[in-house]
Amino acid sequence: MSLTERLRAALDRPAPPTLLAGDLLDGEEVTAAVPAAVLVAITRRAEPGVLLTVRREHMRTHAGQVAFPGGRVDPEDADIAAAALREAEEEIGLPRSAVSLWGSADPYRTVTGYRVVPVVGEVEPDLPLFAQEQEVADLFEAPLAFLLDPANQRRMSAEFRGARRHYYEIGWNGRRIWGATAAMLVNLTRRLEA
């Protein structure tokens, strides 16, 4: 069974108990979370990749970070998947009709107050995409197998808001994929391994 077939099947199974829930520390106050969605767009290749963006340095949150295309759910969005597709179309010019949706993965709570649901789908390779200049500095494709390999997912720690926090980081081709994006990839890996 191919990696994409295994991943697609894993999305239909119950969540394993080892998933990362979010960036909040035990005992940290939980406030109302803003619903958000990202698109994990997997390219239909012999060696599939994942489309990722680099956020502009001036962004209010997660400036300069590697991220999946996505953002907050708007009132006009029919559901989480619609929000992820709208955001991907706005940020990288990915037509909604070009995505074959597989389903949603596990929500992740960010320290910045978002409850992010990754929506997973497949796209044709080499689509004529573009970086929306207000939000996206760059876009690239990284190999799915590399991103989901536990050997490439390093657990790190740093001081933030007066507490030692742990996070994951994946280095690929000079790119630093970390924080919520890396955590969602770790969760996909854990689903595959369950």
Automatic annotation (TrEMBL):
PROSITE patterns registered for this protein in UniProt: NUDIX
InterPro entries in UniProt: CoAse, NUDIX_hydrolase-like_dom_sf, NUDIX_hydrolase_dom
**Keywords assigned:** Hydrolase, Magnesium, Manganese, Metal-binding
Q: Which CDD domains match?
A: NUDIX_CoAse_Nudt7
Kindly give the SUPFAM superfamilies that the UniProt entry links to this protein: Nudix
Domain called Nudix hydrolase: residue spans? 33-168
Name the UniProt record assigns to this protein? CoA pyrophosphatase
